[in-house]
Amino acid sequence: MLKHKAVAIFFTTILAILAIASLFVAIEIGYAVIVIFVWFIVVLYGSTFIFSNYHVHAYCSNPLETEKKIAITFDDGPSPNTTLILEVLEKYQVKAAFFCIGQQVEKHPEIVRKLISENHIIANHSYEHSSFFDFLRRDSVIEELRKTDALIEKYLGKKPQFFRPPYGVTNPSIRRALEVTKHKVIGWNIRSLDGIIKNEKFIYKRIIKRVKPGAIILMHDTTFETVQVLEQLLLFLEKNKYEVVPIDQLLNLKAYEN
Ligand SMILES: [Zn+2]
């Protein structure tokens, strides 16, 4: 059973018990308020953190990987900065995954072609990536995913299977949309925070502290600082005998629909 459903049953049962008990003994309304508050916190936590697998199952790493293998992913592109990222990846002969925003694919078809010709994985990261994505109803989420799938298919000739929700936030509408589109949700277990903090040293240290077999690193190809960090990171991985593998290989999943 989905965690969201199980949690709802659990808290509804407590509230029902409180309601029934209040018929026989005096129970302060404050108890019900506390129960509802705790429920709200649990839902908030589950919706915010993709690795909690609260609304949907998300692949955030390969916990069974024992060899020093790791995958690198980039969100929010393609953008002019992506070409700088591609130069570094090419220099170190590394294949990464790019979770693209549909609107950006429309703006930068030449970069999409470059991603394809250099054999990187292309995945879906919604069409607009709007701050309101988490308030969209099921059908609008489906439309966002299908629009981006169609754009990627136009250049690649096949549909992406991987989807990363904007901000890593999930909810019941997204879950219901995914039941229709059948995308596999890809999360991460190393968040670089490169989209928020503009300090290369901080980002680099934050990543290398968390590196372990089977990990998935989240970075942004839209950020200039990431270019420098990426080169440092690839040197670190090389020195420590880590192999950067494509994410479909790390997770044993198919990146595209046939
Ligand atoms: Zn994003």
What would your notes on this structure say?
The mean pLDDT is 96. It is globular, with a radius of gyration of 21 Å. The protein has ten helices and nine strands. The chain is an alpha/beta fold and 258 residues long. It has two domains: 3-48; 59-251, TIM Barrel (Alpha-Beta Barrel). The strands form two sheets. Strands 2, 3, 4, 7, 8 and 9 form a six-stranded parallel β-sheet that branches. It has helices spanning 3-21, 29-48, 82-91, 102-107, 109-117, 138-156, 172-181, 200-210, 224-239, 247-251, and strands at 58-59, 69-75, 97-100, 121-124, 162-163, 184-186, 190-191, 216-220, 243-244. Strand 2, helix 3 and strand 3 form a beta-alpha-beta unit. Helix 1 (3-21) packs antiparallel against helix 2 and helix 6 (138-156) packs across helix 7. The structure holds zinc ion. Zinc ion binds at residues 75-76, 125, 129, 166.
